[in-house]
Amino acid sequence: MTGSAPVTNIDDVRALVCALDLPATITPEDLAVRLSTMRRRPVLIQPYPENIVAESRRSGEPLPYGVWVAGAASDYIFFREDTTHSHRRHILLHEVGHIFCRHVGDEASADGGPEDVPDLQTVRRAVKRDGEFAEAQELAAETFAYLIERQTRPTLSATGETPAARYRLLED
Ligand SMILES: [Zn+2]
Predict the structure, then answer these.
(1) 130 alpha carbon – ligand 1 mean position (Å)
(2) Cα–Cα distance list, 113 to 12, 68, 86, 102, 106 (Å)
(3) What does the DSSP 8-state code read for residue 82?
(4) How many angstroms separate the alpha carbon of residue 95 from the centre of ligand 1?
(5) pLDDT digit string (tens) for 44-70?
């Protein structure tokens, strides 16, 4: 599982999380710092920009709870603020998982992304793209989030070890 191929196999995700050798308590922000160092590219976690939230309200199309947007120089993970702390944490771990698993490589910025905070167009594209991630990649990101959460919330293992049970966490 070295190299640059996307990680989608569940056992590979497990190995990847093990290899990170994480402390018992870790936040999505800690993981973003690790990613920034590993990839020499900042990963910034922020609420959705105001104009994006406003547009979503106008159009009546709800934003996903979280999305990863690759800019030219940085990666952004945007999140909705109108949810619980634990749900947000799960969403952020899921998005961080996509980046750890290299689900969209540098090609995301190949068309000349923004230098600074992504504009409306770019976020809209990313929101679409996230919805179109293959099932295997969604499951891998979800497994990543689950494995990290299990370290700090051991009761989660009660939901079972099957991929289907893990995937259901997405709907929580
Ligand atoms: Zn996803």
Answers:
(1) 6
(2) 30, 13, 31, 18, 11
(3) S
(4) 6
(5) 999 999 988 998 899 898 888 999 888
